[in-house]
Amino acid sequence: MNSILLFFISVLAGVFTQNSSELTINITNIESIKGEIIIGVFNTDKNFLKDGSAIKNYSIKVENHSEQIIITDLPKGEYAISMYHDENSDNECNRNFLGIPKEPYGFSNNIKPKFSAPAYEDCKFILDGEKELEIKLLN
Predict the structure, then answer these.
(1) Which Pfam families match (predicted)?
(2) Under a CB-based contact definition with an 8 Å cutoff, are residues 88 and 36 in contact?
């Protein structure tokens, strides 16, 4: 009886770990040691970068010139990341009159926007187990 129970527990454990993933994001080029880094995770191009459209949001208190976050609650799939350094802790990405962020920001694949915000297609990546990204903040 114990071997049957152990078998079913093993099968269930395999089912639950099949879709598990671990995304490590290393954030570099942090100039000021204050505030938080706010991270948005998107899984579609629909409303990419629109306020309130991220499927998950995370924040990291800035304590060093580089920070790391390990995300374990995303299922395998396609994603894009955006982030900004909320230096003044006002919970928004402050922008100038042209809409360009005044606070440091970054995107997955280290996309550097030229004349407009990047497209989801440029920032997307596949998470299919363990993945490590390095995102360099743009100042």
Answers:
(1) DUF2141
(2) no
Does the pLDDT at position 123 exceed 60? Answer: yes
Read off the DSSP letter of residue 101: B
Distance of CA 74 to the CA centre of its chain: 10
**Tokens encoding 102:** 């005044």
Smallest CA-to-CA distance from 72 within 125, 16, 111, 27 is with 16
As given in the structure block, the two tokens for residue 19 are 């879709």
- State pLDDT tens for residues 26-77: 999 999 999 999 999 999 999 999 999 999 999 999 999 999 999 999 999 9
pTM of the model: 0.84
The beta-carbon contacts of 43-51 under 8 Å, at least 24 apart in sequence, are 43/77, 43/78, 43/79, 43/80, 44/120, 45/119, 45/120, 45/121, 48/80, 48/119, 48/120, 48/123, 49/82, 49/117, 49/118
**Bridge partners, 23 (sequence order):** 71, 131
